[in-house]
Specification:
Chain A has about 425 residues and is α/β, with parallel strands linked by helices. Chain A has 12 helices and 13 strands. Classes of the chains: A alpha/beta (about 425), B alpha/beta (about 525).
Chain lengths: ~425, ~525
């Protein structure tokens, strides 16, 4: 008998089947994911989770008899009172513990729960979305490099010695130059000793000794490993595109912003964060809040601490400009900014805001999204015309000039995800900014 | 059995923990009992310790250690995993494969007692049955199955690389849908040998490559085909019609399939055939294994090789396995093959040892023979579920389970009790129950009856609707669609009432493009 321990075998043997299944059931899984993402809090939006799939779409049909009609017989255990000839009213819907015999597997299949891993979930959640202008404009001058193996070289550091290759070279050189092997020398030595000191073999012995000497000389002349043989693993440096991003969250926290609006903004930021996190290894987040003056704060303060004052948007842009200059050089960072506001701005500030945006902020940014949050009750059906806010008007002018700026209005929680999708749907351009 | 007992000095194990040496000791002790006392004849054993994920994995690919890739296995895995994680379903303690050496998977979470039970059950009970039952000998090749699966997996993978995953998936979908009608039910000329099966495929391809000559393609074909009415019979016999093995028929006859597609149909068909005996011997196989583990565990306890605690643990698990809820119990879901099988094996032991007057009338050949193992070994070798019940379901068993027979005619307003556990009912119940284990009775009888290869190539199938029970329509439609896709031309399925040969219902399907290229109309 053999006992084999298979516990350490590589796991995930079923992965290929799982992927095939997911591809097969993709449209259904996608639908289920979107439905389930509506019900879960945005905080764990990028956690994996279970989705419920209807069984029909991934049915495996087979020929089998239907569960009704015709003549059928049942054999049941546990008779207590029946005698032959008794009649039993036909149970409805196969209840009463009978009727299951007539329906083989495959027919009454229930929906089943399907657990997605975090990556699978996020993949489906953000499917078809693309970061606009992903190609960093100044990526060529990026400092970061990675090293890839690229063949062998004759020089290098001892740590990179390619032992196999070196010994192989040495072996072929030794064969080519006929360096005597140790076995041959030993054999000769033995043969000589076998002759002993006897007179009659003296001649043969001398010949052998001569040959041994010759071979020994050859052995010393031809080294075991020659510097010629030595090879090193060669690495080539390949410049790596910048793989880090910073996300600026700008928000108006003046009195006119209600909790509801902040909640909407937060949801949008979280989505953007998940999205960036998926594309970049490092994602920094900078929170800048503003009233009539702006400051960089931590997340908790950003969302929770109340603030009062007027509304001067340009202060936030200035603050952002400072932070960029200080810590996030556009050469090394992909900069994304998302601004949330109810649209109010001090009238005299609009020009300054527009100038700041077009001249300094937008050129440094990969993408700038403006989200105008409204009250829940202000959710207008599409096509309903109302007066655009100051900020909206200002930004519309900038968008027309073709800058990487996108803007949307959101009034209700359920709109966040569609709007987000719209903003980042593949092949978004500046034309996307026509809400 | 000898009554002189030599008590072992110490048990094989104490407590729940085990290590490989424990398994080895258990196996050796069990083997001694199985071979010397029960006279079992087994394949050599290979016991593999696996974890939960691997068990789920084995579940999803019908217990086989290696299998080709298909989404349906991923689906089963996802379902089983979800059921297991939410606690709706436990995992089997073991899976055993009909191969030589006989591979049994045991779970690492099991206690030492459970491992001993599993070894007795699978590595000796099932193993003996696999090696000796005539159906397995006739239909399966335990020596070659693992190699064949390896080949199948490799071949499917090659096809995926060469023709694309989508192509192969569509073909496998269609083949899987027809898998239940892809077995030869009657033995044919030669036994299957899966090793040569693989070799044959290689040689045939090699031959094709050698004799390939592109010029043949340019030779103009025959303008007209001769119509000879006397050739009708000959044509049908050449096509081996009627044919109930649908995949076999397609593999040999479907006009537009490519060689690799035929080979994949063949793989699916051969695997279906490999599992065919298992579906016919579920009751006996489990009965045999359960009886064997019960005897062995008791014997181990008698010998002092397992302690009382382990025995109680074993009995608890054993009684769970052989529990048969009654028909009006919420837990009832059909007759438990473990319960009925085990009870019948024990009953046969009783008939051999302490027959009653009734037994002597019913089973004169074995009643009081004394050597129950010889009788059981003979039964395990020469019967399948249907014939086993027909022969050996004793009146005592019918009374024990309180079996009764109910007729359900859709034309009548209510069900009628036909027979119960009384003098007049024993035989009726025995016959009715045996029918439930007969594949010819439980699986719909569908046959390819005709095709006109020279004309429109419409394929005609008949379903002989036993007792006027029709096919489940939605499924039938889908399977028929798959069949049409493989065939490449129209397909008709007629449901026939065997009583008067009238057509009860007709399904038709037109081929879709995808598997075989379609002519643009």
């Amino acid at each position: 008998m053999h006992i084999v321990d298979r516990r350490l075998n590589p796991s995930g043997k079923n992965l290929a089947n799982r992927q095939r299944f997911m591809r097969r059931a993709k449209s259904m899984i996608r639908k289920a994911v979107h439905e389930s993402s509506g019900s879960r809090s945005i905080k764990d939006a990028d956690e994996g989770g279970e989705v419920v799939l209807p069984a029909q779409g991934v049915q495996e049909p087979s020929f089998h008899r239907s569960a009704t009609g015709g003549i059928r017989d049942h054999l049941l255990p546990g008779n207590k009172e029946y005698i032959p000839g008794d009649t039993i009213p036909r149970p409805q819907g196969g209840g009463g513990g009978r009727g299951s015999e007539g329906s083989p597997d495959g027919d009454g299949e229930d929906d089943f729960r399907f657990a997605l891993s975090r990556d699978e979930f996020v993949d489906l959640f953000l499917e078809d979305l693309e970061l606009p202008d992903l190609a960093k404009r100044k990526v060529v001058s990026a400092e970061a490099v990675t090293y890839h193996r690229a063949g062998y070289s004759v020089s290098g550091s001892p740590a990179n010695l390619a032992l196999n290759r070196t010994v192989r070279n040495s072996l072929s050189r030794r064969i080519a130059l006929r360096r005597p092997k140790k076995d041959e020398l030993d054999a000769l030595q033995e043969a000589i000793e076998a002759f002993g000191d006897e007179e009659e073999h003296a001649e043969k012995r001398l010949a052998l000794e001569e040959e041994l000497r010759r071979k020994q000389r050859r052995t010393t002349l031809i080294p075991y490993i020659d510097p010629l043989d030595v090879r090193y693993k060669r690495f080539e440096s390949i410049p790596k595109p910048v793989a880090q991003a910073v996300m600026f969250c700008l928000m108006d926290v003046s009195g006119s912003m209600t909790e509801h609006m902040k909640d909407l903004a937060k949801r949008f930021y979280v989505l953007l964060y998940i999205f960036l996190k998926r594309r970049y290894k490092n994602v920094d987040v900078v929170f800048i809040r503003h009233t009539h003056q702006a400051s960089e704060v931590d997340e908790d303060t950003f969302f929770n601490s109340p603030e009062t004052g007027g509304t001067v948007v340009s202060t936030a842009l200035e603050e952002m400009q400072n932070v960029v200059a200080e810590r996030y050089s556009p050469d090394n960072w992909n900069i994304y900014a998302a601004q949330a506001s109810d649209g109010d701005n001090t009238a005299s500030d609009n020009d300054r805001t527009a100038r700041l945006l077009t001249e300094t902020i937008l050129p440094a940014c990969q993408y700038y999204a403006y989200l105008e949050v409204g009250r829940d009750s202000e959710h207008f059906p599409p096509g309903f015309i109302r007066r655009d806010s100051d900020l909206w008007q200002t930004y519309t002018a900038i968008v027309r000039s073709g800058a990487p700026l996108a803007m949307r209005k959101v009034g209700h929680r359920r709109d966040i995800y569609p709007v987000f999708r719209e903003l980042f749907a593949k092949k978004t351009g500046s034309e996307a900014a026509t809400a | 059995m000898s009554t002189t007992l030599i008590r072992a000095e110490r048990p094989l194990f104490e407590g729940a923990d085990w290590e490989f040496s424990t398994i080895q000791r258990c196996h050796d002790a069990i083997q001694q009992i199985a071979v010397e006392e029960l006279g079992l004849n087994c394949y050599p054993n290979q016991i593999e310790v696996i974890g939960t994920e691997q068990m789920l994995d084995a579940y999803s690919s019908i217990g086989m250690p290696l299998f080709y890739k298909h989404w349906s296995f991923g689906k089963h895995f996802a379902r089983n995993e979800a059921m297991y994680r939410t606690g709706m379903q436990g995992l089997a303690y073991e899976i055993v494969i009909n191969s030589n050496p006989c591979i049994s998977y045991i779970m690492e979470e099991n206690t030492a007692t459970m491992q001993a039970l599993v070894i007795a059950h699978a590595a000796f009970g099932h193993n003996h049955f696999f090696k000796n039952n005539y159906l397995f000998q006739q239909w399966t090749d335990a020596n070659g199955i693992l190699d064949y699966l390896e080949f199948a997996r490799g071949f499917v993978m090659q096809c995926e690389e060469r023709y694309g995953e989508a192509q192969v998936e569509r073909l496998l979908d269609a083949a899987h849908a027809l898998m239940s009608h892809a077995v030869h039910r009657y033995p044919r000329r030669r036994t299957t040998d899966l090793r040569s099966e693989e070799k044959r495929e290689r040689e045939r391809r090699l031959h094709d490559e050698q004799v390939f000559n592109d010029l043949w393609r340019t030779v103009p074909g025959k303008e007209t085909t001769r119509q000879d009415p006397t050739a009708e019979e000959r044509r049908r016999s050449l096509l081996q019609l009627p044919q109930e093995n649908i995949l076999y028929f397609l593999e040999k006859t479907a006009p537009r399939l490519l060689p690799w597609q035929r080979e994949i149909l063949r793989i699916v068909r051969i695997i279906a055939q490999y599992f065919y005996p298992q579906s016919q011997t579920k009751l006996m196989n489990e009965g045999c294994a359960t009886y064997v583990h019960y005897r062995i565990m008791n014997r181990l306890h008698e010998k002092g090789l397992i302690n009382d605690g382990a025995m109680v643990e074993f009995l608890k698990s054993h009684t769970n396995v052989v529990f048969q809820p009654e028909f009006d119990d919420q837990r009832y879901s059909g007759i438990n093959p473990y319960a009925l099988g085990f009870a019948m094996m024990q009953d046969i032991e009783r008939i051999c040892k302490e027959p009653t007057a009734e037994d002597k009338i019913w089973f004169p050949a074995i009643a009081g023979s004394g050597d129950e193992m010889a009788v059981l070994r003979d039964i395990w070798a020469n019967y399948r579920d249907e014939s086993f019940i027909l022969q050996y379901l004793s009146p005592r068993m019918v009374r024990h389970f309180g079996l009764f027979h109910v007729m359900d005619d859709a034309n009548e307003p209510s069900l009628r009790v036909e027979a119960i556990h009384d003098e007049r009912g024993y035989r009726k119940i025995k016959q009715a129950l045996a029918k439930h284990y007969d594949v010819a009775y439980t699986a719909p009888d569908i046959q390819v009856v005709d095709v006109n290869l020279a004309g429109d190539r419409k394929l005609i199938l008949h379903h002989r609707a036993l007792n006027r029970v029709l096919l489940e329509e939605k499924n039938a439609r889908m399977v028929l669609q798959h069949l049409a896709d493989l065939w490449g031309y129209d397909v008709v399925l007629k449901e026939i009432d065997p009583a008067n040969d009238s057509v009860l219902k007709e399904h038709a399907a037109n081929p879709r493009a995808g598997i075989v290229p379609m002519n643009v109309p």
